[in-house]
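To close the section, here is one more complete example, presented without commentary so you can practise reading it yourself. The ligand is adenosine-5'-triphosphate.
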Amino acid sequence: MLLSVQNLHVKYGNIEALHGISFDIEEGEIVTLIGANGAGKSTTLHTITRLPPPEAPRVTAGDILFRGQSILGVPPHKIVSDLHIALAPEGRHIFGNLTVRENLQLATYARKDRANVQKDLDRVFELFPRLMERQKQRSESLSGGEQQMLAVGRAFMSGGRVLLLDEPSMGLAPLLMYEKFRTLKRLNQEEGITILLVEQNARIALQFAHRGYVLDTGEIVAAGTSAQLAADPEVKKAYLGG
Ligand SMILES: Nc1ncnc2c1ncn2[C@@H]1O[C@H](COP(=O)(O)OP(=O)(O)OP(=O)(O)O)[C@@H](O)[C@H]1O
Ligand SMILES: [Mg+2]
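Output:
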């Protein structure tokens, strides 16, 4: 098992946000975590990467294993540089005053495999032609959808082999959203990137992922292949509009 979250309890201050959730991801899989606002999706990703820190969620019980080893004691920067787990955060957190290209280059600073940086940059520009066209543009002037692409590009440029994507569909028009998911599928199929996808848009998430889990106010309430979840009457009613 690549990543295994086991009975994870997480608190912000005195309030518990995750009440003992468990899920697994195999290498090369696309797994989605779907759920409504406030279900604990971003909290789950931030607990794995422990970024950003100001009001970081605190693990009070359970464990997160990566290739069988607990990573709760691993410093956040090593999660990226040594374990190659990278987050493309909700709200993007790109550097607006830097160009697209500078943002992508900055993401590589902790990489040990410098020889692969240029190849990966070429790959990002091939996968996201819009980023190539706009590589000298200041990132703050990108559209919301383009900034979402840049967030994924940065996670890949940081050397991430396991990408944690926080609502990559947010704010995208349907056409751009499908294009983006096709690109993510290529990263999975052609580069062997493992993806944990967090989404409120259950419809697209279940079209794209191999398997999924439904998170409801800090608890996993359903699990299965995407086809099983999409056919589940409760999931249909609550997340797929009947
Ligand atoms: N920094 C924080 N301090 C205190 N409580 C927080 C903090 N971040 C999140 N929470 C709370 O934890 C719960 C889960 O939030 P989280 O952001 O993980 O939800 P989410 O599933 O990502 O929702 P959304 O779809 O709206 O992004 C919510 O009740 C939220 O108010
Ligand atoms: Mg969120």
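Once you have examined the tokens, check your reading against these statements. The pocket of adenosine-5'-triphosphate (ligand 1) is lined by residues 12, 17, 35, 37-43, 55, 90, 200 (CB under 6 Å). Residues 4 and 24 are 4 Å apart (CA to CA).
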